[in-house]
Design a protein that fits this description.
Elements lengths: L1 H22 L3 H8 L3 H8 L7 H10 L4 H14 L1
Length: 81
Amino acid sequence: MNDDVSKMGMAFGRAVKLRRVELGYNQEGLADKAKLARSFVSSVERGVAKASIVSVWKLAQALSCNPSDLWITAERLYDAS
């Protein structure tokens, strides 16, 4: 089960990074827009930190998308791995 949780975190982090890169933001820019620490954004993208519902919401708003868009992308990445 721990492997699944880790795999889910990594898939979500990749979804955030894909959207961030698509928009041309660096981690610092995304962190500023989301009002989160850059180190936290980095940890989420690497699948090390688990984002809370509030953090997911802030990231989605900063990335100009819905939280569900990030989860749908994460689900596809998870299933593909």
